[in-house]
Design goal:
The protein is α+β, with helices and mostly antiparallel strands and about 220 residues long. It has 2 domains: about 120 residues, no CATH class; about 100 residues, no CATH class. The chain has 5 helices and 7 strands. Strands 1, 2, 3, 4, 5, 6 and 7 form a 7-stranded antiparallel β-sheet that branches. Helix 3 packs antiparallel against helix 4. The chain is elongated.
Length: about 220
């Protein structure tokens, strides 16, 4: 059921535009932009890239897609004139209503994100800033418990660099990126941007880094 809702959230703008499109030129352009927006959402879900504005991307997707469809409709109106009244049948009218509802749903998600987002989350390995010459040799993929999620990274470095030196470089890189001391010896940093107020934690020990995401918020450190 959840997969069906996710697909509906992702594909609804494209399906609706298929009923609304009237010209080939504008139609193809709008389809291309909608595909790009959908791909950005898929990439975020699949951890292809990381952005602290992830919540804004997820909540803003239907709003952005709705504006693209609206712009496409206005462009076609300019090219072909007003849509004939006889074309306002059930598919066209239903698509317009669905696009509007989809955009409103995105707004509701943005306003309610803090209340409904899971308190435990799995941080992306991309959240970890790495100093020059230091790489992630192994990522265990992470796990989640009842109130905490974490992933363990094994850090590699050039020959001759000791574990203590690796740890010192990692801590310096984290500090330069804005991570600050938190509870239990962790370094913490906002996980999100405006909507998502949770924080990520990094526990650094030699060549091992545990990245965690829990219920604590920006006010908690």
């Amino acid at each position: 059921m959840l997969l069906v809702l996710e697909l509906l959230y992702l594909l609804l703008p494209t399906v609706c535009w298929a009923f609304l499109v009237r010209t080939r030129t504008v139609g193809v352009a709008v389809f291309a932009i909608l595909a790009g927006l959908a791909l950005a959402l898929v990439g975020l879900a699949q951890d292809w890239y990381f952005t602290r504005a992830a919540a804004e991307v997820e909540a803003g997707y239907p709003i952005a897609a709705g504006l693209v469809v609206l712009a496409g409709g206005l462009a076609e109106r300019r090219l072909r004139g007003p849509r004939p009244a006889k074309e306002y049948d059930h598919p066209v009218a239903g698509s317009a209503v669905a696009i509007t509802a989809h955009a409103l749903a995105g707004s509701a998600i943005a306003f309610g994100y803090g209340a409904f987002a899971p308190t435990a989350f799995l941080p992306s390995a991309a959240e970890m800033p790495l100093p020059p010459g230091v790489t992630v040799e192994h990522d265990d993929g992470g796990y989640c418990g009842s109130n905490f999620c974490s992933r363990t990274l094994t850090i590699g470095s050039p020959a001759g660099v000791t574990a203590d030196q690796v740890e010192a470089r990692l801590r310096a890189a984290l500090a330069a990126d804005g991570w600050t001391p938190g509870r239990n010896g962790a370094l913490v940093h906002p996980h999100g941007w405006l909507v998502d107020r949770r924080v990520s934690e990094a526990f650094v020990s030699g060549r091992t880094v545990e990245l965690g995401g829990s219920e604590i918020t920006n006010a908690g450190y």
